[in-house]
Specification:
It is built from nine helices and 18 strands. The protein is α/β, with parallel strands linked by helices. The model has no long low-confidence stretch (mean pLDDT about 95). Bound molecules: aspartic acid.
Length: about 350
Amino acid sequence: MKPSILIIYTGGTIGMKQDPETLALVPFNFENILDEVPELKKFGYRLDTYSFDPVIDSSDMHPSFWIDLANLINKQYDNYDGFVVLHGTDTMAFSASALSFMLKNLEKPVVFTGSQLPIGMLRTDGKENFISSIEIAAARRPDGHPFVPEVCVFFDSQLFRGNRCIKINAENFTAFESPNYPALAQAGIHIKFNESVIHYPEHWGRKLKIHTEIDTNVAILKLFPGITPQYIDAVLNTDGVRAVILETFGAGNAPMSEMFLSRVKKCVDRGVVVVNVTQCAMGSVDMSAYANGVALKNIGVISGYDITTESALVKLFCFLGCYNDIETIKNRIMTNIRGEFSKND
Ligand code: ASP
């Protein structure tokens, strides 16, 4: 049977057009996506499309959109072999991370892609990204199972695990990088899948489950030399906050001052989950490497290892949404759920 792919259009540059008055790019509802890329007919696949209404610039992204997306994939799961999500690049790493946690027992590819130039422009990167994403979503191993049964991001010839990538460039075609995990596939003359780093289920045939309970009461405290107690207090005492991502220096280090540590300790003691994520794009938190990291560990800060901030944020959204018990939440956050981090202890 010919492969069937559902193309989900959410907005983003790939489908944008220039506003004739302001010349700024605005989301455009391109009703018939397939007309924009006639080459797609050559695949001989069944390609159906679904467009969100309204389509958005992804800087307007909101968790309620992720819930709609998860519900849509759940509803259409048995009807398609794979899904391609056309999405703006600005928050693609957040959305791909979110969907990776929201879709449990996923056994089909969900490939996010977009572009830096609209698909209607001559030098667009959108066509190649779009066409290769469809090919990846449809690709099968000799045993008939998909090559990539994961939520992933395809951009500029590389396929990344969705919850491992970050947007690194606002203008180059190479807009994404996966600093701490190898690419799942590389598109050259052939698409080469790196099967040893792709996650495959132990047993196929499990039913997809979706988690749509989300709690966004998370704050991010990015450290910098000269940070004031007032600023720290404002973030840590945000109304309703249940978890804080501490964006630390290097291998997970923070000031040793009483001013700083006493504030974080108070926060932990009142039952807020405080997760240590490094500001460095590459490498991991290791709270035993330096005295400054040990001090954080001793007051109950937990390690995010080499997780991205994007992924840590949405992982917290999901587990705060699922559980009330603080120890359960901490335990889930420190557990590798969808390959989002590599533990180093
Ligand atoms: N602002 C656009 C968006 O994220 C940028 C892009 O798609 O590249 O929707």
